[in-house]
């Protein structure tokens, strides 16, 4: 359904109508690197407007300019994605198509929300000059070391409710996106998949309180990201991100990873179904090295495989890079 300015409804519309508690994501009254550091130190989600206004990306990353500067570059995008459901109907790779960037930019302006398309999880420096964005000026020396990705797509693209191992700065460059957050402390209300503790079974835009009753006591936050907004998402914080319009975003993961102990404590709380699934995947995807399908927007290794990697390699997030899958 559309709202004013031709934008799509956000998940908060359905959640509020169902009686779920949804507050606004706080916006910093003063957007400075010092204020951002305070939010990071306290692990508090916060939107900062204007911190990236001096970046060349803010003026040059729009379809009109990018057609001229990067149009001949080949990209591999996800085309005609499903508009409903948490899982893909088939392996993610079956949606991939390679084309000139200029052609993809034309497609995103015409694609409907019923069949969105996405150039997603692409390393930023594979396409753009790193001088276009400057996380070091925002985070400080050392903290800017991390993983930077770009996200370019039509209205209706969806990164469904999930959590990440590291702190995240999510920057909206062009267009608008809705973001819904759920604190790590409310992870049981996210109803993770039994074989995957970082992806939720819940579609927040189609809430089923009978199936997922813990949503009633969860405390969500939601806001619309406007061009120039930067959102700090603490590590572990669940987030659902959807394009309200054609959109260009960039994000940067940084800092220390969430600990294996935190995931093991969540696994303990979730109960026997999760324990069985973890043991099964420890054997099949860890010891026996059997591959798994990519049925989410991006499927990280299963919990059992992650536990195997932690014990075998000392790295809970080994092979957690979609560009290498």
Description:
By secondary structure, this protein is of the alpha+beta class. The protein folds into 2 domains: 4-254, Cupin (Jelly Rolls), CATH 2.60.120; 260-324, no CATH class. The protein is built from 10 helices and 15 strands. A 6-stranded antiparallel sheet has the order 2-13-8-15-6-5. A hairpin with a 2-residue loop joins strand 10 (192-193) and strand 11 (196-200). Helix 4 (63-70) packs antiparallel against helix 5 and helix 9 (272-287) packs across helix 10 (303-313). Mean pLDDT is 91; it is low at 1-6.
Please compute the radius of gyration using only Cα atoms.
Answer: 19 Å
CATH architecture of the largest domain: Sandwich
Series of secondary-structure elements, N-terminal to C-terminal: HEHEHHEEHEHHEEEEEEEEEEHHH
Principal-axes geometry comes out as globular
Largest sheet, described in full? 6 strands, antiparallel
User: What percent of residues adopt helix (DSSP H or I)?
Assistant: 25-40%
**Whole-number mean pLDDT:** 91
Q: How many E-type strands?
A: 15
* Strand composition percent: 25-35%
Protein name: Cupin-like domain-containing protein
InterPro entries: Cupin_8, JmjC_dom
Pfam families: Cupin_8
Domain JmjC: 112-271
SSE topology sketch:
Layout: H1 11-17, E1 21-24, H2 33-42, E2 46-49, H3 57-60, H4 63-70, E3 74-78, E4 96-100, H5 101-110, E5 118-123, H6 124-127, H7 135-139, E6 146-153, E7 158-162, E8 167-174, E9 177-182, E10 192-193, E11 196-200, E12 219-225, E13 229-233, E14 238-243, E15 247-254, H8 260-270, H9 272-287, H10 303-313
Parallel strand pairs: 1-12
Antiparallel strand pairs: 2-13, 3-4, 5-6, 6-15, 7-14, 8-13, 8-15, 9-12, 9-14, 10-11
């Amino acid at each position: 359904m559309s709202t004013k300015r031709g934008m799509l409804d956000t998940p908060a519309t359905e959640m509020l109508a169902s009686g779920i508690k949804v507050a606004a994501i706080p916006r910093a009254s003063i957007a400075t690197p010092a204020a951002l550091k305070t939010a990071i130190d306290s692990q508090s989600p916060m939107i900062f407007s204007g911190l990236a206004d001096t970046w060349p990306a803010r003026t040059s990353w729009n379809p009109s300019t990018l057609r001229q500067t990067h149009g001949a570059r080949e990209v591999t995008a996800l085309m005609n994605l499903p508009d409903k459901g948490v899982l893909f109907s088939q392996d993610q790779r079956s949606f991939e198509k390679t084309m000139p960037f200029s052609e993809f930019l034309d497609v995103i302006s015409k694609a409907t929300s019923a069949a969105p398309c996405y150039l997603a999880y692409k390393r930023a420096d594979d396409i753009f000059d790193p001088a276009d964005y400057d996380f070091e000026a925002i985070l400080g020396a050392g903290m800017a070391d991390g993983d930077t990705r770009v996200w370019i797509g039509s209205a209706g693209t969806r990164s469904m409710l999930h959590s990440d191992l590291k702190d995240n700065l999510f920057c909206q460059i062009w267009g608008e996106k809705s973001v819904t957050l759920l604190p790590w402390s409310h992870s049981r209300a996210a109803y993770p998949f039994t074989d995957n503790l970082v992806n939720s079974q819940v579609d927040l835009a189609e809430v089923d309180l009978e199936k997922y009753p813990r949503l009633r006591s969860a405390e969500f936050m939601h806001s619309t990201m406007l061009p120039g907004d930067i959102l700090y998402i603490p590590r572990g914080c669940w987030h659902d991100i959807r394009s309200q319009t054609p959109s260009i975003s960039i994000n940067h993961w940084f800092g220390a990873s969430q600990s294996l102990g935190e995931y093991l404590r969540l696994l303990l709380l979730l109960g026997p179904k999760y324990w069985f699934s973890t043991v099964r995947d420890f054997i099949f995807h860890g010891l026996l090295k059997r591959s798994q399908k990519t049925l989410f927007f991006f499927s990280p290794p299963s919990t059992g495989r992650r536990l195997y990697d932690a014990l075998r390699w000392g790295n809970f997030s080994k092979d957690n890079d979609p560009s290498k899958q």
